[in-house]
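Sharing in case it's useful to others searching the archive later.

Someone asked me privately for the predicted structure of Adenine DNA glycosylase, so I'm posting the question and my answer publicly. Question first, with the sequence:
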Amino acid sequence: MIFSEEILKWYRENKRQLPWRDTRDPYKVWISEIILQQTRVAQGMPYYQRFVAQYPTVSDMARAREEEVLKLWQGLGYYSRARNMHATAKTVVSKLNGKFPETYEGLLKLKGIGDYTASAIASFCFDELQPVVDGNVYRLLSRYFGIDLAINSTAGIKQFKELAKKVMSTTNIRDYNQGIMEFGAIQCAPRKPYCLHCPLNKSCVALATNRIAELPVKLKKSKVKLKHFNYLVVVDANGQTILEQRKGKGIWQNLYQFPLLETKEEMAAISLGQLKDLGLGDHPSILLYNERPMVHKLSHQHLYTKFWILRTDKVVAKAIPWEKLPDFPVPVLIADFIKRFKF
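And my answer, the predicted structure tokens:
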């Protein structure tokens, strides 16, 4: 039996029942694919359900404020995905009459949609013969064919795409593409693949040469940067606090946070001079909430974070009642602090 037929047979017998597999609506498939980038199915499922409930159509999402979309996304990380998703919804409504393109090439023109997502939507919804290549597919193809070319190199990306096209099914591309990703996620899993009961084990090069643990190959990432964040948590005479919105193109763009002091080294104390712009008066009390920094790990940087509690008997201008904080989209480490802190 050829490769694609084995994948289809396995998928028919083992596929998980997932809500986005019961539809050919490109809007819902698109939401699922954006959420599942860098996200496991178990984590992404409740987000998908909330997004579809909150925004049943692309027009509903286009009408939403970006802050609302970011708040619904809170906790998934990689917030540019949510911003791009919102921007694309507005583009589809304003320029495409509320309808997603039905071709791979047309989908590629939308913000936040790359090769993989365009291939997925085009094949799942419109049966276009486009191979999908996500992390699961890279792993399966690399092991099965014994390819040690780095999957995140320019040459590797090109070769694996060509190979995926060569072996794909041309009669049932919808199920085949979902099947090969499912196979990689469950059968040919990253750490504990089920090689003993794998239908491809007799012809798998990595298994035959004892290289399962070595493949796929990835180029090493650039060095992780270490940063020190000091959040200034104001509690004024009315039990209110200050939030500010992050601007620019850095991490957490357009999310909210407590006023931030970013330093090169860990801070042991804060001076009154560093608080002068907060309007706290001359004698605010300063208390360090956590003596040991909380380490928040992102893909490219680790944030060593301290929260400083600043109490003042003054009423601070433009402050926000504490009970209103859950309405604002914030990074997950701040959301966790808000849940724990008792003022």
